[in-house]
Amino acid sequence: MSAIVVLLAGLVAMALGYFIYSKFIAEKIFQLDPNFRTPANEFEDGVDYVPTNKFILWGHHFTSVAGAAPIVGPAIAVIWGWLPAFLWVIFGTIFFAGVHDAGAIWASVRNRARSIGAVTGDVIGARARSLFMIVIFLVLLMVNAVFAVVIANLLIANPSAVVPAWGAILVALIIGQMIYRRRTNLLTVSIIGVVALYGLILIGPMVPISLPESFLGLPQNSLWILILFLYAAIASLLPVWVLLQPRDYINGLQLFIGLGIVYAAVLIGNPTMVAPAVNPDVPAGTPSLLPLLFVTIACGAISGFHGLVSSGTTSKQIKNEKDVRFVGYFGAVGEGSLALAAILATSAGFATLAEWQALYSSFGAGGVNAFVQGGANIVSAGLGLPQDIAVTLLTVMAVLFAGTTMDTGIRLQRYIMQEWGTIYNIPALRSIPVATVVAVGACVALAFGAGGLDGSGGLLIWPLFGTTNQLLAGLTLLVITVIIVRLGRPMWFTLIPLAFLLTMTTYALLIQLVSFYNDGNWFLLFLDVVILIAAILVLLECVGVLRKHLRERDARQSTG
């Protein structure tokens, strides 16, 4: 099949989802109010609470939630065939992710911009909040520890990406000053930023940079990991307008242009989907499509991590509640577009089926490298770009997405620590520097404590990320559903997605339990049990509260 057909079908479907379905959800279910005073205006402090232009905030939200996951998940999942991955990305974006992301922002904005875990305390109860916070902490720990490894490996494998990846930080600092200090026109700022970033991409292959193979006994990847955590800690302490907002905004523009380049290459080169639509001959050891597809592709369809960003940094910057639809739902559409590009790159970026099968010789063999290799082949063939420039472009896309997610992830972990300090009356944790040190310290402890000198300890618990992340998404939808029921509005538009998601995720967790037991992996087995029990207890608490509100609503209607 022509890749053009797949591309156009995906883009048209997501466009209809935004212009029709998201409008219905915003007006009839969330009932967004332009006159509501948002926390960004009420608690403005110039550091975390900053009323922000919706286009700039969209850039922050989109690049923060995207990360490398909407590339990695689809790039692995196409081993079952490109069609199941395509359908889950499209329907997941329209009916799951968009509603989840916008709903989490809305719920947080309506509750003083607190995290979805803290909001659970008011909506459900203190016990559910404590259990929810455990799941949230584990998800953030996994994301921050593993993304550092992903970025480090990409920078080592592609030294040409070092200059553009780190140069983007300097560009962002300048952009932040231009927007907030100089009050420069946003269009002018955008053009300058994009030109600077693409100039760095052209310079990158001319000035490849590699760290020493070993320094003070630490290997190259460990040095990169430590540098990344140091940077993320400093970035999380800065006011959002100094680095986080402008970095995410300009990265968002650059990355959307990058997507445009990939899509243009598909339209011009018209590659063929060499991967099978449904793969009847998967390699030995590949798990079953059901339910693993729905946890392998998280970001790009629906992801619990999005709820943390939505209710963590994004909700603190919403200038007008009407912006929730554009920032939240369209942010999910942006991520779905990236996942679609990953499917095209890994299914149509190879010359023959045999070449594709050679790469996908085992489950998990795809990933970022398959995206970079296949995407670069499409761009080089379709647009005539030199192969090294195309590889650098795709690598920088992956690094910048992962980097902005890590920036936000560390800040979110700091927020969680501060919330714990407030909830459990620990004054030290309410301090921004102390909370930051504890947050980063936990990530470094996992990276090096479990992984040794190579700093890859995050990979130890990464097998649990997919299921834990999707459980978090389901529980977030459950909290949103309870809020909707309390307000007397239709609940089916969140209840049906959460029922499907919790069913598939619980099924996947049980499969993992058996697998960990058979492999004798007692540590992951223990964590799996803890996460499963916490999720079930939160679910029972939520269902109890939901039934109570439904009874009260029925009673009001019968007496009315």
Structure description:
This protein has a single domain, classed as Amino acid/polyamine transporter I, CATH 1.20.1740. The chain contains 23 helices and two strands. With 560 residues, the chain is mainly alpha-helical. A two-stranded antiparallel ribbon has the order 1-2. α13 crosses α21 (465-486).
Low-confidence stretches: none
Structural Rg: 22 Å
Q: Number of DSSP helices?
A: 23
Main pleated sheet? 2 strands, antiparallel
Identify the CATH homologous superfamily: Amino acid/polyamine transporter I
- Listing every helix as H and every strand as E from the N terminus to the C terminus, the arrangement reads HHHHHHHHHEEHHHHHHHHHHHHHH
Class computed from helices, strands and strand pairing: mainly alpha
Spatial gap, N to C terminus = 58 Å
User: What proportion of the residues form beta strands (DSSP E)?
Assistant: under 5%
Strand order of the largest sheet: 1-2
CATH uppermost class: Mainly Alpha
Count of the separate structural domains: 1
Shape: globular
- Average of the residue pLDDT scores: 86
| CATH topology group | Amino acid/polyamine transporter I
Number of strands: 2
* Overall CATH architecture: Up-down Bundle
